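From the thread on structure requests for the teaching lab: each student submitted one protein with a one-line request. Submission from student K.M.:

"Model DNA-binding transcriptional regulator, MarR family from Enhydrobacter aerosaccus, tokens only."
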Amino acid sequence: MKLPDDLSKCLILNTVAAARTLLRRHDAQLKPFGVTVQQFALLAAIRFHPGEPVAALAQRVLLDRTSLTRNLDLLERKGLVRRASGTVGNVRLCELTGQGDRLLDRLLPEWEQANSALRKGLSGKDEATYLKLAKHFAQE
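Reply posted by the TA:
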């Protein structure tokens, strides 16, 4: 086994490196707004899927329960989200506050710009292949 060559071609290590780089880059872009990429995704999911239980939001933004709870707690402390009980059983719901709604209005163009910059230099075929592979690897 030629370890250096094998490691440089390792799908796992390259995926982790790409994910860390992308997350670090886009977290830095959102830092002036006081949120992370995960928190942005959560704000958007709450807005665009109103009345959806918290558990469903976690699946939508690909967060485990602990990360979801931590991020919701932070967003709630910042006054961006409010939690409420659902009408059925133990269901928990979230909604954006006025402040959260206004922040998301400011964040969406930032997200569009970041997404556009990331796609620069990629063909439509490259994008489709990347998304197909990323979704394949994200399946459990």
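TA comment: The first helix runs from residue 3 to 8. Strands lie at 81-85, 92-96.
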